[in-house]
Amino acid sequence: MKGRCLCGAVEFTVSGALPKLYQCHCCLCRRVSGSSSNAAMIVPMAHFAWQQGIRQYSTETGFKSHFCSLCGSPVPNMTRDNESYWVPAGLLDDPADTQVAMHVYVASKASWDGVLEETSPPSYEAMPPDDEFMALLQPDKNLIERKK
């Protein structure tokens, strides 16, 4: 699947089954996205490829934000373990083959952020343990089988 920034100067591809999404409601993600939350997925390095270049900004605490130098769109960046990429879901051409698996940092959500429905995916006040987080983001095996 292809992805790109608003102006198209930054392009990338994601191969294989799409992982599930998470929506982060922390203040950093709200600022990066300019919205109530940031919908993203974690893609293994082997399934991610840059097609065109990026720029980067880092805070003193180590938070990194990669973006297009022309339009300013946030673009994928490598996770702390350097084994995968954080990919903003809104940049994908058609992420219809995935779904939201969880909401994280809901304790930090903006006061104007709507209440999450009881039918929503699981919600966590902060980030769940890494193993639980990654397990919830695995692609839906039933969807993969239906596509074969």
Automatic annotation (TrEMBL):
GO molecular function: carbon-sulfur lyase activity; metal ion binding
PROSITE patterns, alphabetized: CENP_V_GFA (PS51891)
Entry keyword annotation includes Cytoplasm: no
InterPro entries noted in UniProt: CENP-V/GFA, Mss4-like_sf
Taxonomic superkingdom: Bacteria
Keyword entries, A-Z: Lyase, Metal-binding, Zinc
A Pfam family recorded for this sequence: GFA
Domain CENP-V/GFA: 1-125
Keyword Lyase: yes
Recorded family membership: Belongs to the Gfa family.
Protein name: Glutathione-dependent formaldehyde-activating enzyme
